[in-house]
Design brief:
Layout lengths: L1 H29 L5 H16 L11 H22 L6 H17 L2 H17 L9 H75 L4 H26 L5 H4 L5 H11 L5 E6 L9 H21 L5 E9 L2 E8 L17 H11 L3 E6 L5 E8 L1
Parallel strand pairs: 1-2
Antiparallel strand pairs: 2-3, 3-5, 4-5
GO cellular component, one term: membrane
Organism: Streptomyces canus
GO molecular function: ATP binding; phosphorelay sensor kinase activity; protein dimerization activity
Length: 381
């Protein structure tokens, strides 16, 4: 709050100084008969262009228009003073033109920034022509001062413009990375649930004739998986639409959610068990818990896709030396009855490894010595 109020005080002081300088110009120009009104028009246009509040500017009042119109008026005033009689220039007009030069360099589009800045610079350099047309030495001295002021203004405005560009690029990259992460979350959740629907549908078809009494739990599992898939997509779409509270809508996962994954995975054909060591703490960082959840989710999805003959899947959570160990193993020999389109493109483990290594962890996946496949992740706790 203090920094905001201090910034407001500086802004108010700057406005007051600019208005006071413009008033000095008006008073000085009014002393010369016949030359007051042109300068008054320049000061009025320039002050309006500089001080018009940004939130109240009409759409047509573009940075180009703000920079060009007062500069053209100043040049016409200079030409008029040369033709009619010498006129003074004051600090107000000089400050306004430098402010508009700043606006041109920082805010004008690339296609017009050079033209607008050149026009404002020319108006600044033309100011000494009014009173010193007959004294070349003084005129050149004031022009040299004008060059220095122009250079400082352009350098400062160009620096801020480069910072604006870097900030825009950083924000764009952050948004892109966040949307890619959201897309990965959507893939993980939906692929997991839809694969489960496919497997349980196949089980239901096999049991339709032989095990009608056991069919209802399978159908309930299909309904639950479809509901969770729709909920995941709804949460993700809510984030992509920039909802007011995206944190509550983003798909999340933690250690507690792993039990729900295993319950949803289990079927009459495939059994799944969870072994969680008592040493595993409940207050691990959220990103570590989310990564562990994704490891289990991707491993279970791959069991459904590539090890349909597996009868036992074991998920283990251990904690030792400030590291969380997540293991998912099965006893399958490989093979799947899923359609080819449901096998996936093989990028799940690649993305999972990127997620784990980004946290400083390790991920290993490969065949077990006796039989089956194992995925093992070590995450810093």
């Amino acid at each position: 709050m203090k920094s905001v109020s201090a910034r407001g005080c500086v802004w108010a002081a700057g406005i007051g100084a600019l208005v006071a300088a413009a008033a000095v110009d008006l008073f000085a120009s009014g002393a010369d008969k016949g030359v007051g009104w042109p300068q008054a028009a320049v000061l009025l246009l320039g002050t309006a262009a500089v001080l018009w509040p940004a939130h109240r500017r009409p759409p047509w009042l573009t940075p180009q228009l703000r920079a060009v119109v007062p500069a053209v008026a100043s040049l016409l005033c200079t030409a008029d003073s040369v033709v009619r009689s010498g006129a003074l220039f004051g600090p107000g007009e000089l400050a306004i033109l430098l402010c508009l030069l700043f606006v041109a360099v920082r805010h004008c589009p690339r296609t017009s920034v050079m033209a607008c800045a050149s026009l404002d610079g020319a108006a600044v350099l033309a100011l000494p022509v009014r009173p010193f047309l007959d004294d070349e030495d003084l005129m050149l001295a004031y022009m040299l001062i004008g060059f220095v002021l122009i250079g400082l203004t352009v350098a400062f405005a160009a620096y801020l413009r480069s910072q604006d560009y870097r900030r825009t690029v950083a924000v764009s990259e952050t948004r892109r990375a966040e949307r890619l992460a959201i897309a990965a979350d959507l893939h993980d959740f939906v692929a997991h649930h839809v694969t489960g629907i496919l497997v349980q549908t196949q089980v239901a078809r096999m049991m339709a004739d032989t095990g009608a009494d056991e069919l209802d739990p399978v159908l309930a599992g299909i309904e639950r998986a479809a509901t969770e898939a729709l909920a995941s997509m709804r949460r993700t779409v809510g984030v992509l639409r920039d909802t007011e509270d995206p944190a509550d809508r983003r798909p999340v996962g933690d250690l507690a959610g792993i039990a729900g994954l295993i319950d949803g995975f289990a079927s009459p054909i495939q059994k799944a068990t969870l072994h969680r060591a008592p040493a595993v703490p409940d207050d691990l960082p959220h990103e570590v818990q989310a990564a562990a959840f994704r490891v289990v989710q991707e491993a279970l999805t791959n069991v459904r896709r590539h090890a349909a003959d597996a009868t036992q899947v074991t998920v283990g959570l251990g904690y030792e030396r400030a590291r969380l160990e997540v293991t998912v193993s099965d006893d399958g020999r490989g093979g799947s009855q899923l359609p080819p389109a449901a096998h996936g493109g093989g990028f799940g483990l690649v993305g999972l490894k990127e997620r784990v290594t980004a946290l400083g962890g390790e991920l290993h996946a490969g065949p077990r010595a006796e039989q089956g496949w194992e995925v093992r992740a070590l995450l810093p706790g």
